[in-house]
């Protein structure tokens, strides 16, 4: 007779419960669904963040008149311009003076300009500019025997100036520019310079709208000598880039330019510009007319240039510019500056002629522009 061994009841019960638990766990694991993780919003900026509390989630771009596609900002510019031989004629406007015709064998200009950013905050930019210009004339059959030409022959008509430009982005859409410029213009030398005689002051104010990164425009007023005598005239700024290749840069009526971006390192321009110069000339020999004796006169030169220009990068911070076109002379007139009305005494015309210029300029290196 075989003897049967029985497990204790408690042990059998524990074994049954264990098998039941394992089976249930297996079934639950088979049908389990992974829960979706919760997504939290980005935290607000801490107190040290550059975004103000009321600017969270808003753009921090401020409006400026520049648009994408424009060439690099110029820091230091060296410019030389030359006009070939052309005819010159002068008609006397007062009794005692005479008419005269000759040829100018040389008309050259040298310009050196520099721009220094004094302040470059997103909401305020201050730029200091300095410039030195020198214009020279030479005439056929020297001396010509004509007082006006002999007094500017090889004399060096100089312009030394400084300007301050304030660019104020108001918000993401609006901006304004204020510029004031003072220049000493004439045939002065360091030993005989009288600031009050040669000082010329000009200014401009423009208020504008930045419609997009490719479109900015503004309206305002300019006061200066662009069109001869000192006077105010309206100004319309229009900067627009239509596509990656074409754009327009204009400050009408002073200049309008169409831009073609061949590449980031090569740009072409076509358009026109109006240039106005105002010189005080000390006379070597006094000029006499109708009982008046002049020891100095005011020479106003205004010209319109149709121009083609190419700008090309040589190195990271160094560019060159080549420009050529046709110069239309609007005025080259002498005035009696001793009279408050600035009476014109000689009406001169420089014959229209082609011109050419070469330019080297320094721009901010790319590594300084990277954020």
UniProtKB/TrEMBL annotation:
Pfam families: DUF6268 (PF19783). InterPro entries: DUF6268. Residues 1-31 form the signal peptide. Residues 161-360 form the DUF6268 domain. Keywords: Signal. This is DUF6268 family outer membrane beta-barrel protein. It comes from Hymenobacter lucidus.
């Amino acid at each position: 007779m075989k003897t049967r061994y029985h497990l204790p009841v408690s042990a059998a019960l524990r074994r049954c419960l264990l098998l039941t638990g394992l089976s249930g766990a297996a079934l639950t694991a088979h049908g389990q669904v992974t829960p979706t993780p919760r997504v939290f919003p980005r935290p607000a900026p801490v107190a040290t963040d550059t975004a103000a509390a009321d600017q969270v989630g808003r753009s921090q771009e401020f409006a400026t008149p520049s648009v994408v596609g424009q060439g690099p900002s110029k820091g230091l510019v060296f410019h030389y311009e030359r006009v070939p031989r052309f005819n010159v004629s002068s008609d006397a406007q007062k009794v005692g003076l005479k008419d005269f015709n000759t040829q100018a064998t040389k008309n050259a200009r040298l310009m050196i300009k520099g721009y220094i950013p004094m302040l470059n905050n997103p909401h305020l930019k201050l730029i200091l500019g300095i410039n030195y210009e020198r214009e020279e004339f030479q005439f056929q059959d020297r001396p010509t025997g004509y007082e006006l030409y002999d007094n500017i022959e090889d004399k060096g008509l100089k312009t030394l100036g400084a300007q301050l430009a304030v660019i104020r982005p108001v918000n993401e859409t609006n901006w304004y520019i204020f510029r004031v410029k003072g220049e000493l213009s004439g045939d002065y030398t360091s030993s005989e310079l009288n600031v009050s005689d040669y000082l010329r002051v000009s200014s401009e104010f423009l208020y504008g709208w930045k419609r997009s990164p490719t479109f900015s425009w503004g309206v305002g007023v300019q006061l200066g000598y662009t069109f001869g005598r000192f006077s105010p005239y309206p100004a319309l700024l229009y900067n627009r880039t239509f596509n990656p290749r074409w754009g327009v840069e204009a400050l009408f009526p002073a200049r309008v330019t169409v831009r073609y971006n061949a590449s980031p390192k090569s740009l072409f321009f076509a358009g026109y510009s109006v240039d106005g110069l105002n010189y005080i000339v000390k006379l070597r020999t006094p000029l006499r007319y109708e009982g008046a004796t002049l020891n100095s006169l005011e020479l106003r030169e205004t010209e319109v240039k149709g121009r083609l220009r190419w700008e090309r990068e040589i190195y990271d911070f160094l560019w060159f510019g080549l420009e050529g076109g046709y110069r239309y002379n609007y005025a080259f007139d002498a005035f009696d500056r001793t009279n408050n009305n600035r009476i014109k005494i000689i009406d001169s015309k420089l014959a229209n002629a082609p011109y050419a210029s070469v330019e080297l300029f320094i721009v901010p290196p790319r590594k300084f522009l990277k954020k």
